[in-house]
Every structure is written in C-alpha cells, then in structure tokens.
Write a structure and sequence with these properties.
By secondary structure, the chain is of the alpha/beta class. It has 7 helices and 9 strands; from the N terminus they run βββαβαβαβαβαββαα.
Length: 202
C-alpha cells in the first residue's frame, strides 16, 4: 500500500495569525484542503492519513466535517520528529512493507503530477527512503526564507519512507519546481502564494 501522510499537527508559530496553520486561507480555501484535493488526484496513492494533534483541534473538527475518504491519526504534536516516530511505529505494527509519502499541510501548490512523479522515482529507486529537495535559487528568486540548505538545496517537506521506525538509507531528488518551495510559514509566504495562485489554480 502507498499511504500519503498529511502532517497537520504542528504549532505553526511563525505564521502570526489567530487560526491554526492548516486552516489558514489562501483565496478563501484552507491550506489543508488544497493538499487533500491534490492528493486525491494522485494515481498512485491508495489511502490518505492525516496526522493531527492537541495543537490543531479546529483542524480536526474541520476534517471531520468533510466526511472525506481519509483516516485521522492523533499524535502528540510535541515536534516533527516525535510525531514522525509515532507514525512509523503505528504503521510498522501493521506492515513493514508499506510506502509512506509524507507531505506538510502548508504546501498548497504541490500537484498530483509532482506527487506521482516523486512516487514513481521512488518505486524505481534502490533505497528505502527518498528526500525531495529544491534548489536554493528558487527560494531566492521568490524572496522566500528557508530554514537551512545543504549543498545548495533546501528540503521541500515532501519525503518518502518505508513503514519501519529505523534509520533508512535514502536517495535524494532535486526538483526545480516553485510549487515545492511554497510552504506557507509566514504571512509574507502567504502573500507570495496569493500572487502565484492564478498560475496554479486558474
């Protein structure tokens, strides 16, 4: 099985708004709904699981109101690595052969085509994990900040792992796609996303 794991339990402290980050609206639509819609258009994903936490109770309520074809998984929300470990444990108990595509709830522009391209690359690779990177120039051209870079590339928030909670040998793929760089961490990021909205959704 190929699962999409939608991470929606973080605190989102850098986005200085009153709502929870997954519910931050871009063109009057919550960020998480963009990600869900794009995941639903994937030809390779079998099931979507959404990770929520005590940090995002209103997001949980919103998801339940959708009555969508997805599973909600409660995590601690302590930090990303803690939640990641919990999720890997959860899936490992069911099977060690599943494929988990992790995507953050603040990535509204990542298309189903890109998701399937990454999964197809992974399925033809020789390692258990795949990290998707974006050239730092993409961020610089858009005026976007980034947390860190490695050899001129920035992690995108899109990764693939096997359903085992252990250190996994990984391949890396570098994609020069603006959609992978637009994670909405700040209000400035949101303004850039609004400017690019028509390019992706009109």
């Amino acid at each position: 099985m190929i699962y999409a794991i939608l991470m929606a339990g973080g605190r989102g402290t850098r986005l200085d708004v009153s709502c929870e980050k997954p519910l931050f609206k871009l063109h009057d639509k919550p960020l998480i709904k963009y990600v869900l819609d794009n995941l639903s258009d994937s030809k390779l994903i079998d099931k979507v699981v959404i990770s929520v936490s005590p940090n995002t109770p209103k997001t949980s309520d919103y998801l339940e109101s959708l009555n969508g074809d997805f599973q909600i998984l409660d995590t601690s929300g302590k930090d990303y690595l803690t939640d990641l470990s919990y999720i890997l444990d959860f899936f490992e108990k069911k099977s060690k052969k599943d494929i988990l595509l992790f995507i953050n709830a603040d990535l509204p522009f990542i298309s189903a085509e890109t998701i399937d391209y990454v999964l197809d690359y992974y399925l033809n690779s020789d390692k258990d994990a795949l990290s998707v990177l974006v050239p730092v120039e993409i961020f610089e051209n858009l005026g976007l900040d980034y947390s860190y870079e490695f050899d001129g590339n920035v992690p995108s928030g899109l990764n693939v792992l096997r359903s085992v909670n252990t250190i996994q040998d990984e391949n890396q793929i570098v994609l020069s796609k603006v959609e992978l760089a637009l994670n909405i961490n700040t209000l400035f990021d949101g303004k850039i996303a609004e400017k690019l909205y028509n390019e992706y959704y009109i």
